Amino acid sequence: MTDTTRVLFDAPGPRARLRYRILAGVGILLVLALAYAVFLRLDEKDQLTAARWDWVLTASAWNNYLIPGLWDTLRAAAISIVLAMVLALLLALARMSEIAPLRWAAGVVVEFFRAVPVLIMMLFVFWFLAHRGWFPNTLNPMIGVIIGLVMYNASVLCEVIRNGVVSLPAGQREAGLSIGLSPAQVRRSILIPQSLTAMLPTLISQIIVITKDTALGYLILYPELVTRGRQLGSSEAATLPAYVVVAVLFILINYTLSKIAEGVENRQRRRARSAGPVADADQPAVQVPITPGGSTF
Amino acid sequence: MLELIEDYQLLSAFWMTIKLAAWSAVFSLIIGTIVAIMRVSPVRIFQSLGTAYVTLLRNTPLTLIVLFASLGLWGQLGIELASRDSSTFVIDNGFRLAVLGLSVYHAAFVCEALRSGVNTIPVGQAEAARSIGLTFGQSLRNVILPQAFRGAITPLGNVLIALTKNTTVVAAIGVAETAYRMKAIAEFEPGMLMVGFAIVALGFVILTLPMGMLTSYLSTRLAVRR
């Protein structure tokens, strides 16, 4: 697949170049005008005074709010991705099994948790545990966040694994069967390992989704980065600056992760270790060539 | 169970979810298309602006964007999207800020979906458009975008489904939609938590399942035959 966007326009001649320059000038002017309007508004509302921003350089803001928030965000995300991957493997095995009831049960679980919003799941688990009192109250929000994230992402990743298996050449499976392996052995030792290699970039972009979704913990009082940002904003009387700093932290983390995912994807395409194409979380499990890249939520 | 639906206004909550999803879908489609056009345009500065928009918005949690719209734009900067004199000011303003937050966030994904749609078009189409002398704007309008939309049905449908589920996030700023009502059930009627969860979950399955089916029907129906 060649990139269509590159041939959408001719190499510009002198007149086109002039036109582009004028357009670029207009664009820059518009951006500057917008920036100036934002600046005026911020200034008018006293958002740009030093008192609103000087906490960024103090140790207490970082030690008491931002670093603990970052730690809680990353911790929940890390636990969730590991558990989600394990559960996704089990679900994928169940969905491809020869035992029909097991297949159906896994199918229902996957479809259900893909349809229910993560936040609804988190709210349910959090309040359920809060009413039962099985765990200390300080632990409930974290368990709620993790279970919500794991159930949703395991369902998504299960479909990615299945996608990867479906898109492998039929010869892989036939070769396994012809040397006397059982269908289950073929899946375990031939199909799924290849699918897993192919899904590595998708797995990394799913980590971005999970990191962003830990912010839903705000609604069940999990003290992650957004919650801490809100507390920080009210304690320093700097709501807006606190959100800006939190947003910058999130963007830095996720941008780095997306660059890593891109690098891994390019590397895999170059080396072509796996027989299958790179799987995508958004594509349904059907036998069509899967476009690489795509979006993550 | 019916009492629960009545007491906690679950039907109007679902109606609110649908309204949020519909308005945000319209606005995110508009913004997303503009950003996508910027990203494929020949002017370098527009390309960079489009890329910056997608990178910034896609990597920020939606919760943060929605909170920013409410506490930042409204609370700190005093930007109001409804008339102060109206009797429903608080509700309208909250709703519109929520739609704003949802739209700008999902526009980034709409843009990426459209770009993947552009990539499904064979290069020959763009070359043919250029060789008969169409300008960039003409070839975009008459050749590229119509095919891009049709090729992007599946990813666009996925964005719509994600958007519908993500409307729950605006419970964070007190818009009375489904997650907000479910929180109320959890707080005030602990015994009914299971039933409430079952109803809400079922509601979302009913909302998103037809979207998925419609998407796959349309994507085969509208696919450009090559």
UniProtKB/TrEMBL annotation, chain A:
Q: Which Pfam families match?
A: BPD_transp_1
Q: Where is it located?
A: Cell membrane
Question: Which superkingdom, per the lineage?
Answer: Bacteria
Q: Which organism is it from?
A: Ornithinimicrobium cryptoxanthini
Q: PROSITE patterns of this UniProt entry?
A: ABC_TM1 (PS50928)
> What's the protein here called?
Amino acid ABC transporter permease
Bilayer topology = Multi-pass membrane protein
Which residues are listed as membrane-spanning?
20-39, 74-94, 106-130, 142-161, 196-220, 240-261
- The answer, when asked if Transmembrane is one of the entry's keywords, is yes
CDD domains membership: TM_PBP2 (cd06261)
UniProtKB/TrEMBL annotation, chain B:
Tell me which residues make up the ABC transmembrane type-1 domain: 14-215
Top-rank taxon? Bacteria
Record bears the keyword Transmembrane helix: yes
Query: What is its membrane topology?
Result: Multi-pass membrane protein
> PANTHER family this protein is in?
AMINO-ACID ABC TRANSPORTER PERMEASE PROTEIN YHDX-RELATED, MEMBRANE COMPONENT OF AMINO ACID ABC TRANSPORTER
The record's similarity note reads: Belongs to the binding-protein-dependent transport system permease family. HisMQ subfamily.
Q: Where in the cell is it found?
A: Cell membrane
Q: Where is coiled-coil annotated?
A: none
CDD domains of this UniProt entry?
Answer: TM_PBP2
Q: Which UniProt keywords apply?
A: Amino-acid transport, Cell membrane, Membrane, Transmembrane, Transmembrane helix, Transport
Q: Which organism is it from?
A: Ornithinimicrobium cryptoxanthini
Q: Does the keyword Ion transport apply?
A: no
Q: What is this protein called?
A: Amino acid ABC transporter permease
Where exactly are the transmembrane stretches of this chain?
20-40, 52-74, 191-218
